[in-house]
Amino acid sequence: MQLIRRLRLPALLCAAAVLVCELIARPYANMGICDDGPYILVAQHLATTGHIVYNGWSAAMLVWQLYLGAAFTNLFGFSFTAVRMSTLLVAVLMAFFLQRTLVLAGITERNATIGTLALVLSPLYLMLSVTFMSDIHGLFGIVLCLYCCLRALRSSSTGFTIGWLCFAVAMSAIFGTSRQLTWLGVLVMVPCTLWLLRDRRRILLGGSAATLAGVLFILGCMVWLKHQPYTTPEKFQVTNVPALFILKQFILFFLDVPFLLLPIVALFLPEIRKSRAIVIAMIIAVSLLYARLAIHRAYLPLLEPTIGDWVNASGGYGPSSGAAPIFLPKSAQIFLTVASIGGLTGLMVSFFRSRGVPLAVEPSAGTTWKELGVLLAPYSIAYILLLIYRAAAVANDGTGVIFDRYSLGLLVVALLCLIRYYQDRIQTRLPFASILMVGLIATYGIVVTHNMFALYRARVAIATQLRAAGVPDTSVDNGWEYNIGVELQHAEHVNNPEIVLPANAYVPTPPLPAGTCPLFWYDYTPLIRPLYGVSFDPNACYGPAQFAPVHYSRWLASEPGTLYVVRYVTPSKP
Question: What is the Cα–Cα distance from 428 to 422, expressed in whole angstroms?
């Protein structure tokens, strides 16, 4: 046991599990995935020229991950996969530090290992870990900052405590250059740690100086970004706050949380049967109402997984033409819904139960609930307020929903609190069922990651087929992600109306010719003049074209997926 503790074998196991699951999923595709295509091209340019030159797509700064992606490009040569592997490295390291953070928070090694695997093997984490999106980088900064703050609280040496606080500020500041939400570590989490250490004057002064330096660094980064051409900075202006729209978005958003932490949330299901008869009757009544709403979809799509942009019943993204085939059958969705919402109900029921099991860990490893509350509650409140702003912003610009990937920063907090609460109030060891649930959710995560990349490879194969037949990429609608990549092959920036510098970068795009099928985000890609499109439905638009369909692998599905080439203009037109 001493050797295991010294080598941190449980944390290494968590890191290795992420790597093994990703290798099984075979996550490679030579095109952009969601927002990461333009980011990868910026990293490629940085590797070639040594300069960061944005291309009109991102409001994020991306600096840390751009340099890491450029380093991987120089080491392994440029490819979409090579750049994405830089994110996988960060995801593997994050799994290690998350396990150590949970242990510092008073959770036993075994429980911390199971809890870490429950998050890092979830479909959301596995899919994002093999893209060049900024979410994993931002989450790593938050976890590192929390880890350093907990080490500062546990340290008995003044010098080491100040050192951990300085490291927390540095990690939050650096990783915040990739995803600005990470700066909540400097702005909220570190000041909360200083409040807990306020009786130690030297630490308070040293930590305050480090925090001030972090704030100045943040201001400098914001000023620098403001003067970069082809960026789309946040305007921080919301003219209208539609309360009902925001409420609906948050219902959908938070309904995904118990599913994404299913191996832990489902452990609270047995608490329902321990309740009084009247409570059980009320739960049954509410469940029947929920089932009616879910099955008939009268108000909201309530079956798990919900309509997240990453975790959904279709298994990921696809071309915008035609309806994506449902990956999960209704029976599987009902099972996941019962386990997720039932576990959440059991958790709420357990709050009213007074008896529990005392914590059985070494006193030196423990962190009190008061300390955790001071560290995590202000951070969570600030995070949610920013999400409310984001919900109001998407309501005003019509971009849609609060994405499920935005939940990662709150999932870590929820995971820590759920395991610590279960350990304190239910029983000290997570049951064997939690391990089985981790295996189940890991299998699901591997499958959807594989299926998503198989779909992207099929889109690349169709583009290759059309190109071989003499059809240029600019004459094909292959979904907005592929279209953005094609646009950036022929133009130095996306035609984004949010670009501030240079002032006349955006040029209003004339409408498509009459009779052309709709093109999603056509304004961003004016060079795309589609004659053909890629679709899940062979009868979409003006029906099938003369090109052969492309099939792609869908693990655990009843049949492989198929993509078709369809006509985007009437047959009478050339």
Answer: 7
Higher-confidence residue of 58 and 476: namely 476
| CA Rg value for the chain | 25
- pTM of the complete model: 0.92
- Give the C-alpha distances (Å, rounded to integers) separating 400 from 307, 392, 396: 11, 10, 10
- pLDDT digit string (tens) for 218-251? 999 999 998 999 998 776 666 666 777 777 778 7
Q: Kindly list the domain boundaries of the chain, sorted by start residue.
A: 2-234+364-430, 451-567
**Cα-based distances in Å from 479 to 7, 267, 321, 322, 406:** 47, 40, 8, 11, 23
Residues 239-259 as b/e (b if ≥16 CB within 10 A, e otherwise) read eeeeeebbebbeebbbbbbbb
Give the burial string for 523-539 (b: 16+ CB within 10 Å, else e): ebbbebbbbbbbbbbee
Structure token pair of residue 493 = 């920036």
Q: Where are the beta strands (DSSP E) in 118-177?
A: none
The whole-angstrom separation of Cα 186 and Cα 174 is 10
Neighbours of 134 (CB within 10 A): 27
pLDDT higher for 565 or 398?
565
Q: Which residues make Cβ contacts (< 8 Å) with residue 20, sequence separation at least 6?
A: none
